[in-house]
Amino acid sequence: MNDDLTIAKIRKLVKENIGCPELIPLFDRHKCLFLRNLTGDKKSMMDIQLSKAAVTERYQTCKPLFDTIRQLPHAVIKGAVLSQDAYGSPFLRKSGDIDLLISRENLDAVKSALLEHGFIQGKLVGGSVVPFTRRELLFQTAMSHQTAPFVKETSNRLCPYVNIDVNLDILWGESGQNTDMDYVLAHSAETEIAGVTVKRLKSEMAFVSLCLHHYKDMNSIYLLYKGGLRLYLFCDIYYAFKNLAPDLDVLRQHSERLSVAPYLYYCVYYANEVFDDPDLADFLESWKGYRDDRLMDSFGLTDFERKSWHVPFEERLFAEDIRFLLDGQLDETDREKISLNERFM
């Protein structure tokens, strides 16, 4: 199936509810549980039930933690919260952890709460949780907007471990920008996931956070080299925009305050390349003043490492091994960065 035909079939499925079972392997490879379910794929129903069991275990296990940190400014982002925002259910998007967004000022308090409730800052090795070395902790802090993850063992074989990533910013580590996290976290509200009350970002700030996270995943040389582009990134953006229905004036206010509007334009632009939706097109028209041509048709997270794509968007999206498209463009510095991330991340 050529790339243009694949895009056409995806649009027919989404807009006209015309099932295309031949797309099921593609959706499976691209981690699009929601689109798989739209096709009527029988296996997707089982995967949704497994997702429900895992999400419920994660949130029930973390309920005492959420109660402890309730008075601290924070929000749960991505994962089940994003699934609820975009798809109307916390179980329709595959995820493997819970992401907490906090300010650096509250890191010690949140870390103390995690340790108090049985979490270990470590990784799984041979079925056991092994604490990170000091070197690994320092590398993660220096190279990322996240701390090294926290893990807790459960007695549930469907979800034997609960992983929590603590995010200290909505921008990536190499961005060079310092986000006003007090401003970001001031735009939060309570919601319920699997019977547990948690804090989440309000619609407009949630959409800003989503776009920044997905922009990073679409443009990180390391993440592209390890996993390639994934359709679920654009699916999340499309359905979140449609279902959150953000107030565009508030979205503009947040984007200008945080100096991130070009990244939102980029994400919506490429989501519209897949889904071709009039609401997204209207947004792009109203947002065209924020378009940054340096970002379009390029990859890399900094001006120093940014490189131009030499193939169309559809080709790089559906490439079975994107490394063949990247290999001719990566220099020694890029390869050293990939190697370092493989060792420590």
UniProtKB/TrEMBL annotation:
It comes from the Bacteria. InterPro entries: NTP_transf_5. It holds the Pfam family NTP_transf_5. This is Nucleotidyltransferase family protein. It comes from Fumia xinanensis.
